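Suppose a colleague, Dr. K., hands you the sequence of a protein chain of 117 amino acids and asks what its three-dimensional shape might be. Before reaching for any lab equipment, you can write down a predicted structure in C-alpha cell form. Begin with the sequence itself:
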Amino acid sequence: MSYQELIEQLQTKECKPNLPLIGPGDLLKVGVLIREGNKSRIQPFQGTVLGIHSNQASTTVTLRRLTKLVNVERVLLIHSVKIASIQILRRYKVRRSKLYYLRSFHSKKNRLKQKLS
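The predicted structure, expressed as C-alpha cells, is then:
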C-alpha cells in the first residue's frame, strides 16, 4: 500500500457522512462546541458563506456575519469534532465561487438575491 492510499483511507474515516451540500452565498447556522473549564456548550454561529476550500477531511468554509456594525469572519473546518451541527437557512443566487467582494460592502449593500426553490 502506498503512502497516498494510506492517507486517503485515513481521510475518508475522518469525514462526516451526512453533511448538507454547501455552496457560496448560503446562509448557514453552525453549532460550534465550546469548552469552558469542565463545562461544554454549543454556541451557534450564523453567517454567509464567502468561500469553500475543499480537500476531503480538511475542508474549510469561510463564514461572515455582521454583529453590532462589526463584521466578523470565521474559518471553520467542516469535518472537525468541534462542529456539532450545520443547518442551511437560505440559499442565495451568486455567480462566483468566492464572494470576497462582500467584505468591502456594509449592511444594505451586502444583500444577495434569494434562490427560488
